[in-house]
Amino acid sequence: MGTTKTVRFNENDEKLVDAYIKATGKTFSQLVHENIVEKIEDEIDIKAYQEFLKTDDGTRIPFDAVAKELDVEL
User: Fold this and answer.
1) Cβ-count burial 19-41 (b if 16+ within 10 Å, e if not)
2) Using one digit for the tens of pLDDT, what is the confidence trace for 19-58?
3) How far apart are CA 53 and CA 68, in angstroms?
4) What's the distance, CA 66 to chain centroid?
5) Which residues neighbour 33 within 8 Å (Cβ) at sequence distance 6 or greater?
């Protein structure tokens, strides 16, 4: 088991969260964990892509050529 964190919602947001939890059958912890982890992973992916773009020379290799080089039958 992990640590406990507190999240404060205004009344409207709390009703929205409660309705979503009821509709999906998820627990509050599942909802928060999934969304926080997904947000962090998305930001990591965006930063990695931005770094890649700095060195991308535009070269592309067709899928068929890669498959042929790896001797993969399509």
Assistant:
1) eeeeeeeeeeeeeeeeeeeeeee
2) 999 999 999 999 999 999 999 999 999 999 999 999 999 9
3) 27
4) 28
5) none
